[in-house]
Design goal:
By secondary structure, the chain is mainly beta. Helices cover 7% and strands 47% of the residues. It is built from four helices and 22 strands. Strand 20 and strand 21 form a beta hairpin. The relative contact order is 0.19.
């Protein structure tokens, strides 16, 4: 799909993170924004802890983009101890840095950096690949946002060898402007259940679909064992269908297209709705939808490469 160019001088943006070939399976990322006036690094937040060396973090970060300022972001990747997210200097895996304007002006608003530690690049000895951090950004749709609660359950999930019941987890992914899906939420694990019912959770439509009711969503079910995830099946839908379709049962299909169970939305409730324009939610959301034939892309003057990471510390 071709992307329609659009200049952006200011506005709120959201971004999500993923990493590849980390040197630790249990890791999280601390995110910092440099204060233009004082030069101080202020923490924006921390991701959840990953459980593999190629994590896709579901945490949504938001920041105001100001065209006139050189906004610098720093990402410190840490090895987690006992599932915690404490900043312990000896557990730093590596760091990466971006200018926010670089990402705003990049193709699909995505950029990748190789992690560095001091003056050295970080490499995974097992995979023999460099450890990398990927940032995915979108202009935030502030015209409209729901806060919605969901209760999902599944039935008929397959056993996992020798009659062993599966321990399923549900992941929610949304379509990005590059045509690929990325994770925005995951449930807890329901241990040893072929017919699980996950606890109720709430998501804003901002995080779920960036306010676009018709953006394609993927609901994926995995079996979790010893921090490893084995794919079971998935289905596709969108926020509009989740709210309005009378049939809220979805067949789960494996990689061969075979049905391996059924996912059901047993309850959905809009808890609150914020609408800041006269457009309908569907109309305002579709302006930034990657499903449209002409998806929007921010485009502008490309900034020069960042200095070495150690100069920011």
């Amino acid at each position: 799909q071709k992307h329609k160019s659009k200049n952006m001088s200011a506005g709120r943006v959201e971004f999500f993170l993923s990493c590849s070939d980390l040197t630790a399976h249990h890791a999280f990322v601390g995110v910092f924004l440099k204060d233009v006036g004082t030069g101080k690094w202020n923490e924006l937040g921390r991701t959840e802890v990953s459980y593999n060396s190629n994590p896709k973090y579901a945490h949504q970060f938001m920041v105001d983009f100001i065209f006139e300022e050189e906004q610098q972001l720093r990402f410190d990747v840490y090895r987690s101890v006992n599932g915690g997210t404490a900043f312990i200097s000896k557990n730093v895996i590596g760091s990466a840095a971006f200018k926010l304007s670089e990402v705003v002006h990049a193709k699909h608003q995505m950029l990748t950096r190789t992690l560095t530690k001091g003056r050295k690049v970080v490499k995974n000895r097992a995979s023999k690949r460099y450890s990398r951090l990927n940032l995915r950004l979108e202009p935030l749709n502030t015209d409209y946002s729901d806060n919605t609660s969901y209760i999902f359950e599944a039935s008929g999930l397959p056993k996992q060898g020798f009659g062993k019941k599966c321990s399923p987890i549900l992941e929610v992914h949304r379509l990005g402007s590059d045509g690929k899906f990325f994770k925005v939420y995951e449930t807890t694990v329901e241990k040893k259940k072929l017919n699980p019912k996950w606890p109720e959770f709430t998501l804003t439509s901002s995080k779920l679909c960036n306010g676009d009711q018709n953006r394609t969503l993927q609901l994926k079910v995995y079996h979790v064992e010893k921090d490893q995830r084995k794919y079971i099946g998935k289905c596709q839908t969108n926020y509009n269908k989740l709210l309005n379709d009378p049939n809220k049962s979805y067949p789960l299909k494996d990689t061969k297209g075979k049905q391996v169970g059924t996912l059901k939305l047993s309850n959905v409730r809009v808890l609150s709705r914020q609408q800041n324009s006269t457009q309908s939610p569907s109309a305002s959301a579709s302006m930034a939808s990657p499903n449209t034939a002409q998806s929007q892309q921010l485009k502008g003057r490309q900034n020069s490469s960042l200095p070495q990471q150690q100069q920011y510390q």
